Amino acid sequence: MARRKKQPLDEATRSLIIKTAHDLFMEHGYRSVTTRQIAEACGLTQPAMYHYFADKEALYTEVLRTVTEETKIAMNEIITGDGTVRDRLIKLVAYILQYMPDDLSQMERDIRNELRPETQQLITKWWQESYLLPIAALFEEGQKNGSLRGSKSFGLDPIPSAFFLLSVIQRKPGGSNNPVPKGSVSPVSIEALAAKTVDILLFGLASEEGRQERN
Fold first, then answer.
1. CATH number of residue 34's parent domain
2. Which residues contact 201 (CB under 8 A, 6 or more apart)?
3. pLDDT for 169-191, tens place per residue?
4. Residue 100 confidence (pLDDT)
5. Residues 112, 143: one domain?
């Protein structure tokens, strides 16, 4: 008896599965979401979804691969674009703040506790290529052309500087761990928060004085 040919995958269905899984994973966390929930949200049966992804870890990994690949493209467009090093750093931070998960700590725990070591290593590589290295490239450019001369970050290696900047980026304005202060007329804009974050790193808490001294 001839073996039945494997049915071709539908790209639109695959994209729908990834997008739906992304939304559910980011809202509820890896452990709380089942493949049955994802399949039902897509209007599919579990066996039909397994035609696209072997298991939940494979789907979660593809969700993160898609996110990091989109981030890498966007970040590289920013670092090769116009503007000073400070301007582009602010744009990078604003992008991260705008598109980062609302509960980044939950996602970090999921990766550390739920995924196989080889999958963790792969995700770490994607994270470095998408977030760490683009930021480090700007620090390196600023140190080489002297535009960061006089800033507190000048003289630090680009990679540690990039690590530190990423470590202080916590939540987008108004997020669960960064609520808008009571009595505020309006939320702090992402652009304003990004500028403040970058200037504190480059010039210290007295950011305005630091910029004036540099100029």
1. 1.10.10.60
2. 152, 153, 161, 164, 165, 168
3. 865 555 444 434 434 444 679 99
4. 86
5. yes
Q: Are 125 and 184 within one domain?
A: yes
Q: Is there a single domain that holds both residue 76 and residue 159? A: yes
Residues 22 and 105 in one domain: no
**Does residue 1 form part of some domain?**
no
Whether the per-residue pLDDT at 153 is higher than 80: the answer is no
The burial of 92, by beta-carbon neighbours within 10 Å (0-12 exposed, 13-18 middle, 19 or more buried), is given as buried
The answer on pLDDT for 154 being more than 60 is no
Same domain, 99 and 185: yes
Q: Containing domain of residue 180, as a range?
A: 57-214
Q: What mean pLDDT is predicted for residues 91-96?
A: 96
Block residue for tokens 């582009």: 88
> Contact, 106 vs 26, CB < 8 A?
no
- What are the tens digits of pLDDT across the range 29-60? 999 999 999 999 999 999 999 999 999 999 99
Write out the two tokens for 162.
Answer: 């990039």
